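Checked the freezer inventory, then went back to the computational side. Two predictions to log before the end of the day. The first one is the construct we discussed on Monday; recording sequence and tokens without edits.
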Amino acid sequence: MSDRHKITVNVNGKPFNREVEGRHTLADFLRHGLELTGTHLGCEHGVCGACTVLVDGKTARGCLMLAVQADGSEVITVEGLAKDGALNSLQQAFMDNHALQCGFCTPGMLMTLTELLTDNPNPNEQEVREAISGNICRCTGYQGIVNAALAAAGKQDG
């Protein structure tokens, strides 16, 4: 008996029909099945946030979600944020505010903050800090990330 399942998923605006093993995570499907390597794997326990993607507009840990659970869903990865090669305002704010160093946490941070800014286009500093509290960054000290989120929200000059 096969443990393979056919799924249909829309990733970054493109439809994909694939056969996946029931045990494959969404992160593995994105990275290995679709070659979208921006979704990073850190802890593989849902703690670090590096694998965060948007599934039907809400953040999800790609390492904890099975690919079959995404069947019929709209998935946005960090590769889906830029349009026609141009960075979106949050990505640009990350650059302008020195919000990344090694870049490992950056995709998860961007996806988490994309959800925050969609749900709350005018967050204050505390709301930004609460939103990213589930994403670990070992390099920046978080202040540049907070500044970038506030700049993207129009709270301060970049």
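The second is the one RB wanted added to the comparison set:
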Amino acid sequence: MEIIDLISPESVVPNLRATSKKQALQELARRAADLIGLPERTVFDVLLDRERLGTTGVGNGIAIPHGKLPNLERLHGLFARLEKPINFDSIDEQPVDLIFLLLAPESAGADHLKALARVSRLLRDKAVCEKLRGTETAEGLYALLTDNPATRAA
């Protein structure tokens, strides 16, 4: 599972406007729903349910909200660079400005976990995150996310 298998140029948002975690999740759910053809409310509810289990704010300004959806045929990702960092109840209590949303079919099992690990590994790379924070265009962000040695590591 490569990052390029999860996202497309259309699923990269260079300047997402949100002032809260809930608003960010709503906006991500809206955009994801358009891409995957499922109702926005369904996507939002799955993300909210997952956040109730514990924050997906993993630290260093990064959040990886995720969930499993019925009627989804494959894994889908959506990456957003926030216009301004927001409180995401992160484990390090730092605001978040990079979000990688991951949606999986209910039957995904290990593939879901492998995709989460791949995204996490990529976003743990401080140099990658620095470049993502300095890139203004969707095309540039997509290139950084998909053309990186960390995305191909086992």
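For RB: The chain has one domain: 3-152. The radius of gyration is 14 Å. Let me know if you want it refolded.
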